[in-house]
Amino acid sequence: MSNPIEDYAIISDLETAGMIGRDGSIDWLCFPRFDSPACFAALLGTGDNGFWRVSPVGAAACSHRAYRQDTLVLDSYWETEAGTVRVTDFMPPRGQHPCVVRTVEGISGSVTLRSELKLRFHQGRVVPWVRASDNFTVAVAGPDSAWLSADGAVRRLERADSTLLEFTVPAGRRLTLMLVWTPSHLTALPAPLCVPPETALKATTDFWRNWVAQCRYQGPWRDAVVRSLITLKALTYAPTGGIVAAPTTSLPECMGGERNWDYRYCWLRDSTLTLSCLLRSGYRDEATAWLDWLLRAIAGEPADLQTVYGIEGHRHLPESEAPWLPGYEGASPVRFGNAAVGQFQLDVYGEVLDTLYWSLRAGIPMQPHMWSLVNALMSYLQQHWREPDEGLWEVRGPRRQFVHSKVMSWVAADRALRMGTLLGRNGSSGQWRAMRDAVHQEVCREGWDARQDSFVQFYGSSALDASALLIPKLGFLPADDARVRGTVRAMRALDHDGFVRRYAHNGSGEHSVHSVDGMHGSEGTFVACSLWYADALAATGHLDQARETFERVLGVRNDVGLLSEQWDPRRRRQLGNAPQAFSHIALVETAFALQRAGVTPE
Predict the structure, then answer these.
(1) Mean pLDDT of the chain
(2) Per-residue pLDDT at 511 exceeds 60
(3) Helix, strand, coil proportions of the chain in percent (round to 5)?
(4) What's the whole-number mean pLDDT along residues 87-115?
(5) Is residue 548 within a helix (H) or strand (E), and if so which, with residue range?
(6) Residues 20-54: tens digit of each pLDDT
(7) 45: CB partners within 8 A, 6+ apart
(8) Over pLDDT 70: what percentage of the chain?
(9) Terminal alpha carbon distance of the chain
(10) 10 Å Cβ neighbour count for 596?
């Protein structure tokens, strides 16, 4: 039986991340990068697919756990009949090789613990060769090798399919286990194993606290904002500045269903909100790195613009299925790669130009060739904005005239015009202004449903879509416009026990096929959409409802402050890949929006 998604905490070295359950088991870890094949994949299968558990013998979940203040260093406490121990888990910021450090400290009594390491390289299916010496255990398979060390006395137990160590820790004593990945052709002792664990812990703690000290947010929800920013930083691939949507793949949006996607990549839909979140919070270097990644990734013909790219900006992300993995709680198929790279999504053109505009407004210098990029994107969009697309939600049904895609086409023209004004380059302003006006008129005519007093999901439809809540935030219409107020009121139809779905589902059974997205089954409420709703409520003057909605979302974070993509109010379960950058970015943005509106906690 899998741990609930909300039972997992994250540790990261800014190039990859591990997911640790309350039972002390790392059930997901990809070495050496976020998008590398997993060496621990029990999260999507069973223990036979790889894990590393450190816990007292016979114990289940820890008694309590928490990140150390303003860090990504996790402390888990087990209170047993024999005494109390603390396990401290972290990944030092990347040096030469990725490293997981697990330090056990006796708090009271004398407790016997067990470390069980079962490495399964290449997405949880390749059993490595293992050799053991007095000081190290080394596992090798193909291009991968992993070194396990212990800095104290341990008893090696016989187990054919895993490395099993047992040790006793009395009060006041510590023992540290370290796991280091290296390419298998390198046979020298990995450098991280030569670093004293106390030194590694101090360096890691100092790194995170120095980073958090830059945060500008001083509002009433600071703890939640800081945890979200740390999570966003943990999802950053430091060498390039790319930010993955989540460190996991195929955690289901519908338990037992097929809505299982690989989120270990970077989405353009997140670009403007990511930039805004980082700049508002005081992280200009990270914002600039994200912008630089974006510009490298999209280099090429405008017609080839994708919605999603790899962490280095690569375009080829072939989607495949993994039949050897049964999936989280039986949700199959498990997918690696993402076929959304082949979709046509008009909204990404608006996202890119919106990001460029706000970076220019923030004082980030625009390189001279970027104006050529603006012209190229606008030339393409002028010819294609009337076409149907797969939309923000990457539907796998037929293309539609999605309202949000058209709104983002308007955003593209609007931001291009604004950049031209700032830069004194208005050569195409007449054409762009004509396009902007035409898009606005069409959306207000074709995307509006007078009977519901609301914008709808696509032209000719009566279905609602939570992306319409972004209309005032994007500047398409002001918040005091009657159409915005009507749309905000109409979104009550997407409410599910106080949370907001991204769109309505026409069937709740796992075998029903959605008429728009083409997938079987339903899904949970969408965390980011609930936060957009809080934003829109605040913008339209409903401050008490905005606060209640925001704090309702805060209430479904897990015990260490993390959010997944979705929330199931009926089962009280997190759904989808976790932790989810989109959810945490939206949390930060909403906290700033409510602060500006004068909203305070009760």
Answers:
(1) 95
(2) no
(3) 35, 25, 40
(4) 97
(5) helix 543-554
(6) 999 999 999 999 999 999 999 999 999 999 999 99
(7) 124, 324, 325, 326, 327, 334
(8) 97
(9) 39
(10) 11
In DSSP terms, 9 is beta-bridged to: 20
* Distance set, CA 331 to CA 10, 537, 569, 579 (Å): 22, 35, 19, 18
For residue 529, give the amino acid letter.
C
Q: Tokens at residue 561, please?
A: 């402050």
Amino acid 160: pLDDT: 83
Handedness of CA 13, 16, 17, 18 (dihedral sign): negative
**What pLDDT sits at residue 522?**
77
Residues 6+ apart with CB under 8 A from 425: 371, 419
* DSSP string of 247-259, one letter each residue: S-B---SSTTSS-
* 199-226 pLDDT per residue, tens: 999 999 999 999 999 999 999 999 999 9
Closest by Cα among 258, 410, 421 to 349:
410
Q: For the residues 457-483, what does the mean pLDDT come to?
A: 97
CA 60 – CA 58 distance, rounded (Å): 7
Spatial CA neighbour of 90 closest among 106, 81, 78, 102: 102
Q: Are 526 and 500 in contact, with CB atoms under 8 Å apart? A: yes
Give the C-alpha distances (Å, rounded to integers) separating 458 from 49, 174, 196, 406, 467: 43, 60, 59, 9, 11
Collapsing DSSP states into helix, strand and coil, what is residue 554? helix
Pairing of strands 320-321, 308-309: unpaired
* Confidence check: pLDDT of 506 > 60: no
